[in-house]
Amino acid sequence: METLKKLVPSDLNASKWVRMILGILVLALLVWRLVDVILIQRLYGPDTWARFAITGLIIGGMYALIAIGYTLVYGILLMINFAHGEVMMLGSFAGYFVFELLAFIPSPGPENPEQVLLNAFPVLSILVAFLVGMLVSALAGYFLEKIAYRPLRKAPRLVPLISAIGASIFLQNAAMLLFGPQRRTYLNPTLLDRGLGLEIPIAGNNVLVPYTGIFSFVLSILLMLGLYLLVQKTKLGRSMRAVAEDKGAAALMGINVDAVISRTFIISGILAGAAGVMWGVHNGLLNHYVGYIPGMKAFTAAVMGGIGNIPGAMLGGMTLGILESLGPAMLGIDFQLKDVIAFTILILVLIFRPSGLLGERLSEEKV
Amino acid sequence: MKTNQMLEVKDLHVYYGAIHALKGISFHLNEGEIVALIGTNGAGKSTTLNSVSGLLTPQPGQLFFGGKEITNTPPQDVVKMGIVQVPEGRKIFARMTVRENLEMGAYVFNDRDHIEADVQHAFEMFPRLRERQKQLGGTLSGGEQQMLAMARALMTRPRLLLMDEPSMGLAPILVEQVFEIIQEINSKGTTVLLVEQNAQMALSIADRAYVLETGKIVLEGTGQELLTNPQVKEAYLGG
Asked: Which of A66, A138, A167, A280 could be a cystine partner for A298, CB 3.0 to 4.6 Å?
């Protein structure tokens, strides 16, 4: 560090100035747009804002689940698993095929000959879809690590990263070959019909909160709670924390480090699989590309929360979901630009607070 | 003679890439002994311990523990056999509490009651740790961290304790305490292999000792013999 500073003092100072000026510009732009849209133009009523915020929370929960996978793997291997979005996509497909299969089999009951299993046993169907989705993603994560990352464990850090990007492209294209490139519509049981929801009156208007959204949000909170308990209270969780802190010391305590790494990928996969089925159930669309953007967003969320930090990933996911949902309206720009907002946030976080909202670990380990 | 030999290292070679760190060392430990391995920085002392612990692969070389060959045994199985290392720089888990650190030591066991008894035993041996059991490991002082590292190692119920530079970075008074504890652990039946740069301290408590120089054993003898050996005096004891 010392020598580096001596070598490039002017550059470091310059980047400090650039950051300050950039910061002031971004803040000024934000304030101007917020005042203009919220106070002067008054484009949206409170009910619309509430709808945006609710949508953000629902999507944010899914981002959080995926982001935890990035953070867990980073915590242990110091690498970004760029194929994690594809792990989620495979789970999404698995859930889709479970629903399709159950919608194909007629229910044995005599009273309604038109009834299929999917609607005769909706709760059970949803449960099976989630379990299969989580299982498929868990296996995907497990084999991904075994095949694409483990042989490169001792290679320089850039190498597994490149392997991850390769795995991501491979899995997308493999899914396209297997399942075809067409867009599919997720077939939910009528219980979780995407048009149905709770009507909540806000400021004289009814805001529809879809059941799929409520269901997804509650389930993601439960899964996060479960993960927290697993990491904090169980032996497996303790071994994961130990390996994340110091692989050598963990091995000296009798922990099988390779096994813990495998389990970490399995747990990340389980959460991503759940998010994948939720994504299908709530948004309704599915193709081989479905994991890519959520994967990148979740990566952003993990960085925003402080990569390596589990509560940070949860907070980052929720925050990103809300920001990208409220953002276009707040700034008075096109709604199609929500992706731009998410990735602008990534760049801003990396410039102004690379350690994230809750994390100090990235900076610590880089030094 | 063979019967009470606990650890035997035969012609151990270790390479780090192109660097030949251990050039065929052989030594043994008898049950109940304290054996010191002394030498300067880079002599290969930590490399030796890490090979015994299974963190490094001998190329070639053989390791025997209680008459059984343990060459190429993965580290987690070495721990299960009863060999534990207190690594250089303690390597306690800084983001875990003192109690969690101790429980990590008992990772290979599942008998809750026995583990709890071991924790209580550790607290009796190191009262400071009881006071600080809910504190994060990273907030402890250097001396307390060394105590925690030793207590954590004892949680694995070892037959052989490998200590890597326990005196490093500690005030003289703490160094003496640490060495007293090592002797106490040994008196309760645990064999100790001690790696030290502080040769004076190490030799004074060691039954036997080996002197390691750039990957080779150059001298061996009882602790007392080496303490009075002119060569050792000049090179390691400050004349």
From this structure: A66
- A253 at interface of B, judged by CB pairs closer than 8 A: yes
Tokens of A117: 């299993």
ipTM above threshold 0.95: no
Write down the residue that tokens 């490991």 correspond to. B137
Q: Is the pLDDT of residue A3 over 90?
A: no
Q: What is the DSSP letter of A107?
A: P
| Smallest Cα distance from A173 to chain B, Å | 38
Same domain, A13 and A125: no
Question: Are A159 and A220 members of one domain?
Answer: yes
**CB within 8 Å: A254 and B152:** no
Residues 6+ positions from A261 with CB-CB distance below 8 Å: A76, A77, A145, A150, A243
Q: What is the pLDDT of residues A19-72, one digit of tens each?
A: 888 889 988 988 888 888 878 887 788 888 888 999 999 999 999 999 999 999
Q: What architecture is domain B2-90+158-236?
A: 3-Layer(aba) Sandwich (3.40)
Mind telling me how many Å the CA of A71 is from chain B's nearest CA?
Answer: 16
A125 and A20 co-located in one domain: no
Separation between Cα atoms, residue A4 and residue A219, nearest integer Å? 48
| Whether A15 contacts chain B with CB within 8 A | no
Q: What is the CATH number of the domain that holds A73?
A: 1.10.3470
Subunit contact B107:A252, Cβ cutoff 8 A: no
